[in-house]
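[recover] target loaded
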């Protein structure tokens, strides 16, 4: 059970409502809904409910997340591979719950999802493999030596290297927020956190 009270729309301050509207009325809410963005009372699930609690930070944080999800040069598969790697490394059941579904919708197979979960993921695509290598190094708190950096940038370029690095940091931040405030995936989530 979350350490924070749910904030349904009718209970929001104007500042909180601005964050709520940016999330619930933005690109995350458009198109096919692969996970529950809102609870039955209208409050936001996952990290989004935390963002609403502190609107000064939450508005900027949701905007960064929107930029990472919708305005980078990464392919959808590459982005989801990196996000799922963060979910596993941080044991974030909500991120696994949400992004496993998104990943499957962009072509990540069940075998690849299992490999991501057990840490053995590789890709025959050198760009995806470079994204995974960079994410793995960042998640294991390794400094990139010059040779590894040159190899990653050789496949990703500088812009995509910045994007992946920022994505990993952003999703680690979300995982920390959800851990501190004991925010879990919705009740009907079939993911067992101990299986991550």
């Amino acid at each position: 059970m979350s350490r924070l009270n749910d904030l349904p729309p009718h209970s929001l301050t104007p500042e909180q409502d601005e964050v709520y509207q940016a999330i619930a009325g933005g690109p995350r809410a458009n198109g096919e809904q692969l996970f529950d963005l809102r609870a039955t009372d209208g409050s936001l699930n996952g990290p989004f409910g935390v963002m609403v609690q502190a609107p000064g930070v939450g508005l900027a944080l949701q905007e960064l997340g929107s930029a990472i999800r919708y305005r980078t040069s990464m392919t959808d598969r590459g982005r989801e591979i990196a996000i799922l790697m963060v979910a596993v490394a941080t044991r974030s059941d909500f991120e696994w719950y949400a992004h496993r579904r998104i990943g499957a919708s962009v072509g990540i197979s069940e075998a690849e999802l299992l490999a991501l979960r057990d840490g053995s993921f590789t890709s025959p695509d050198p760009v995806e493999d470079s994204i995974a290598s960079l994410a793995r190094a960042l998640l294991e708190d390794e400094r990139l030596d010059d040779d590894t950096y040159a190899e990653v940038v050789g496949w990703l370029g500088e812009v995509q290297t910045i994007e992946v690095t920022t994505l990993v940091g952003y999703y680690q931040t979300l995982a920390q927020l959800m851990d501190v405030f004991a925010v879990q995936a919705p009740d009907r989530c079939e993911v067992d956190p101990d299986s991550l």
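[recover] notes: Residues 188-196 have pLDDT under 50 and may be disordered.
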